[in-house]
Amino acid sequence: MLVEADARLPTAHNGEIGMPALSEQTPLVFPRADEIPEAHRLPAPIDQTEYLVNGTFRHWSGPMGEAFSPVRLRTPGGLAPVRLGRYPLLTEAEAMTALNAAVAAYAHGRGRWPTMSVAERIGHVEEFLRRFKDCRTEVVRLLMWEVGKSLADSEKEFDRTAVYIEDTIEALKDLDRASSRLDIREGIIGQIRRGPLGVALCMGPFNYPLNETFTTLIPALIMGNTVVFKPPRLGILLYRPLLAAFRDAFPPGVVNTVFGEGRKVVGPLMATGKIDVLAFIGSSQAADALKKQHPAPHRLRCVLGMGAKNPAIVLADADLELAVRECVLGSLSFNGQRCTALKIIFVHRDIAERFLEKMTAAINALPCGMPWESGVFTTPLPESGKPEYLAGLLEDALKQGARIINPAGGTVNSSFFSPALVYPVAAGMRLYDEEQFGPVVPVVPFDDIETPIRYVVESNFGQQLSIFSSSADATAALIDPLVNQVCRVNLNSQCQRGPDTFPFTGRKGSAEGTLSVSDALRVFSIRTLVAAKEVEQNKELIRQITRERKSNFLSTDFIL
């Protein structure tokens, strides 16, 4: 059931923002080419033929993939897609070349990069960071055009990634300082440090194609692993300006890129058994399929960010203004395309009507438009077929007795989908269990608190949830059982990842491994030690090695 763009349009006006609100949607949401501000226009389509292997650019002359923007342009003939450019569709052979370069650079832990001192590796990452920052304007522009992220959010993603790199460097310095001393226990002298694991395969998601990829890529590199990374299919061209930074900042073979269809290039990499660490953010089905292709899964370290159906539980005593504000942000920021988004809201029946009224008003006031427009909140969706999928969820819910509460909810105009507030959602509807990953907000009424608790307990997901209440007793009674079901309980606030110093993980089918600035360093490394009996001969040997700086591992150097 696709609702046409000119259907169900109320006449309310949101005059404060200077752009249409959702309740005013018309088919003219997309611009003409001459209406795009010059500062945000794209140059000619990008013809990316290069990929990075072993410190050099290789050029591909085979089949190419086409990248299109979620933005459409109004033309006399109707809406036209915007072609952004082309990228290589590499084959298994090219993927193997990239993998072999990473394997050779690691050299069973004997390569230049894994045996380099921590201070030297930090220097290379700092050099990359300088070059990374020089690419800000171009990468931000491509973020907007490739995935439909607003200018403000695209800038935030880039800047947050830069801060993440800086924080990772500082965290490693702290970790190394703590490891720079010798420990003597029970007659044994030892030095414990963290060592790399081998070759890491890093793949990030389209919704945060830069930040989420770098939250695995940077810690994997800085801990001494060599890397093969595959950019997401949506958000692929934004990596083109960064390839030179990778090439120039790291030794040959330390960073290698693979482009193409996952089935053709990633599966064969896993099947070789040469991948030591899999860092993947995507669906659990894809993660399971990748793990199964590895011939020695017991040797494979996995860092996985998978699905989530994070619920909000709004109790009868909740501050409604606060709850609505956080639920709108939590469920609809970047069109609900976040793993940490609130994807189902349980509201006590006593306040459900007032909650829906306030949510409707808040959703109606959300500014919609093109990513470059100031203050825009709702933008086009980048995934092909996503509006149709979301419409199918709505159709299923409506057939089973739910209603779309906000007047323009579910309105579709090509790649634009107006957020839909759906009530009452119940078990048996697809919206109740499926992770919609889009601007559809299901609301479930409840009388008994066991209803949302049972939902959380029975769910296959276990990332986060939010509790909205003014009662210490009621909140505490929910915290204790629910912290054993999810990995973060948010009080009177939306679910979110940050700050990056906090652990980010999930239970059940939501994650494997823990990411934060410090946790990521640990997950991409393993504790290793050098030990010797405390006898004079060994003491003198250790003194000579440390005094003359003969080893990068057995060292008492202190990074300032």
Radius of gyration based on Cα positions: 25 Å
CATH homologous superfamily designation of the largest domain: Aldehyde Dehydrogenase, Chain A, domain 1
What number is the mean pLDDT?
Answer: 94
Give the CATH architecture of the largest domain. Answer: 3-Layer(aba) Sandwich
Name the overall outline. globular
Kindly describe this structure.
With 560 residues, the chain is α/β, with parallel strands linked by helices. The protein folds into 2 domains: 85-306 and 516-522, Aldehyde Dehydrogenase, Chain A, domain 1, CATH 3.40.605; 310-500, Aldehyde Dehydrogenase, Chain A, domain 2, CATH 3.40.309.10. Helices cover 36% and strands 22% of the residues. The chain is built from 17 helices and 25 strands. The strands form 7 sheets. Strands 15-18-19-14-13-21-22 form a 7-stranded mixed sheet, sandwiched between helices. The protein has a 6-stranded mixed sheet with strand order 10-9-8-11-12-24, sandwiched between helices. It has a 3-stranded mixed sheet with strand order 1-5-4. Helix 15 (472-482) links the parallel strand 21 (464-468) and strand 22. The radius of gyration is 25 Å and the shape is globular. The N and C termini lie far apart (62 Å).
Short description, anyone?
This protein is of the alpha/beta class. The protein is built from 17 helices and 25 strands.
Secondary structure elements and their pairing?
Elements: E1 46-47, E2 50-53, E3 56-59, E4 64-75, E5 78-88, H1 92-106, H2 112-115, H3 118-134, H4 136-147, H5 151-178, E6 183-185, E7 188-196, E8 199-203, H6 211-222, E9 226-230, H7 240-249, E10 255-257, H8 262-271, E11 277-281, H9 284-293, E12 301-305, E13 310-314, H10 320-332, E14 342-348, H11 349-364, H12 386-399, E15 403-404, E16 412-413, E17 416-417, E18 420-423, H13 430-433, E19 440-446, H14 450-458, E20 461-462, E21 464-468, H15 472-482, E22 488-491, E23 507-508, E24 511-512, H16 517-523, E25 525-533, H17 536-547
Parallel strand pairs: 1-5, 8-9, 8-11, 9-10, 11-12, 13-14, 13-21, 14-19, 18-19, 21-22
Antiparallel strand pairs: 2-3, 4-5, 6-7, 7-25, 12-24, 15-18, 16-17, 20-23
Helix pairs in contact: 1-8, 3-5, 3-7, 4-5, 5-6, 10-11
